[in-house]
Amino acid sequence: MAHANETTSPPSAGPAAPSGPVRKKTLRQSDRRGVFGDKLFSGLAMAAGIAILVLLAFVALFLSSSSGRALYSEDEGLIVGQFLQYAMPLVGGTIIASIIALGLAAPVAIGVALFISHFAPPRASRSIGYVIDLLAAIPSVVYGAWGMSFLAPAMVPVYRWLHENLGWFPLFAGNPSGTGRTILTAGIVLAVMILPIITSVSREIFIQTPKLHEEAALALGATRWEMIKMAVFPFARAGIISGIMLGLGRALGETMAVALVLSGGALTASLISTGNQTIPAEIALNFPEAGPGSERQAQLIAIGLVLFIITLVVNMIARWIVSRNKEFSGAN
């Protein structure tokens, strides 16, 4: 029997903790590794940003240097007027097709995104969102083949009806196309192509709307639509504009779908007559036939430079609009 004055030894506490100087040294080594990692990541990020700017500068330099023969001739001197006479119809056709696509796609895309994020049941929301994402993965040549073989013939009776009933309006004047391959058909195909982009961006922004704002609006007696107007749209305004501008950039630069659908011709204000052409389709259809270093190739590169400038200006305007509207996002 153990004596009362015997004491039990405390259980072992494991290996002894490192002394003060050793622990400080370990912390200093960890700090050095963390600083090195931060500097490495910062350097890689900066290099990536500089690489994008350098690549953009090289593209602009190539387009500028290769398009000189389209603006200057040794025999005639400056021929800027001739080039503008060639370029303006193409610029007009590109802008018209893009505006048609944006006008048709943007309201539908915002409505679909709103339905997915706030009205559809969860299972239906996932299914519709999956289908929308699949639309963005379809190659443009497939859209072009669909527009040329199915949509264009189906639009011929519509164009005839528009001409007979609304022929007094300049957009529906002129002889309706017998093939349906018009700028309006190209705009519809482009609208289908940019619909997934605008829908996906808008949907993600709508989902990120603060729930407290939505619940507060409903608690104050607002209907669901009033809640969307007061809480969702103000918060998502900048994101919606960004999605629309992304879709516009896709419409401006689309090549194969427009080249297959549109039957090119002179610039016309009528949307149902044969005519008009876009810059990307003009380059795609004529560049293989233009000889290397020829004046025709320089002309096509110059019109590509015009498209480059238009796209750059559109993106700058988009950034300016977004920066003005992000000051009030509904969350501040």
TrEMBL record:
Localization (cell): Cell membrane
UniProt keyword Calcium present: no
Main location: membrane
Record InterPro entries: MetI-like, MetI-like_sf, Phosphate_PstC, Phosphate_Transport_Permease
One of the GO biological process terms: phosphate ion transport
Transmembrane segments annotated in the record for this chain: 40-63, 83-116, 128-159, 179-198, 231-252, 300-322
CDD domains given in the database record: TM_PBP2 (cd06261)
All residue ranges annotated as the ABC transmembrane type-1 domain in the record: 91-318
Domain of life, per lineage: Bacteria
Membrane topology term: Multi-pass membrane protein
Presence of keyword Transferase: no
Keywords for the protein's UniProt record, in alphabetical order: Cell membrane, Membrane, Phosphate transport, Transmembrane, Transmembrane helix, Transport
One family name in Pfam for this protein: BPD_transp_1
Region (Disordered): 1-28
Compositionally biased tracts (Low complexity): 9-21
Record-stated family: Belongs to the binding-protein-dependent transport system permease family. CysTW subfamily.
Functional description taken from the UniProt entry: Part of the binding-protein-dependent transport system for phosphate; probably responsible for the translocation of the substrate across the membrane.
Name of the protein this chain belongs to: Phosphate transport system permease protein
